[in-house]
Design brief:
mainly alpha, Rhopdopsin 7-helix transmembrane proteins, 7 helices, globular
Length: 269
Amino acid sequence: MGSTQFGNFEVQILSRFDVTSLQFAIRESQSDRAMGHRRYIYLLLRTSRRKAAVGRVEIQLFLVGYILISICEIFSVGEFPLSGKVRVAFSAIHIGLIAATTWILMLNAVVGYQLIDDGTPLSLALMVSSAAVLLIGTGYIALDTGLQFTGFWEESWTAPNRNIALYVLYQLAPLVFLVAFYILEAILVLRILGEKAPMLYLTGAAILFAGGQVINYVASPHICNGTNGKIDGAMFETLLTLLSVTLVWIFWSSITEDDWHNPVGPTYP
């Protein structure tokens, strides 16, 4: 793969980004994240009331994971006066949480098939332990890459900044998990439940998330240059991701609403 772009992390620095504009953009993005935190907490509280809903605890784990991601973003890309090593640590945790949280989201789709009873100690233990492995493993690679305490990934500091392990765990694995989540849920809704309306929420969530990523990775430099560094794509990406997560929750609630008032079988706290 030496002649391909696979595994390369190329950093673009916007020459027209002055300090004042950078702080303005960060404050706008942090404002969006603060709004997101309130929204996620509201969804957590709403979810806790759905005592009989399938996958209630599992979807709460996903929401908690995303709250932690948003908090880490504040410290990893925010304007807090942190030392370089501390910021690297937050960035490593942030990257690990992305892998773990998207994995939890995919497992939420598996929960719907009731291969294992949802909310049971076995179900939660499998979800939490596997997510912890991803979090620790990905976080360790990111931390070692940033702080170079073993020197194993030292070559990733030189152009073209190639780090296959981090690229797979940070860029590819979450994408695979998200696509698998969509496919599994689509099969569950269309073929097993025989419903179509919930797919509007699921597809809307996918479109919003994809749009946010396109803005962040593709359009952001153009937005930044066009506004002389006053704003970039991060603000829009944060907002679209917030809306996407909200639609995922609405999708989940729409396919479990029949259980809310008519619980069948035992329920779990």
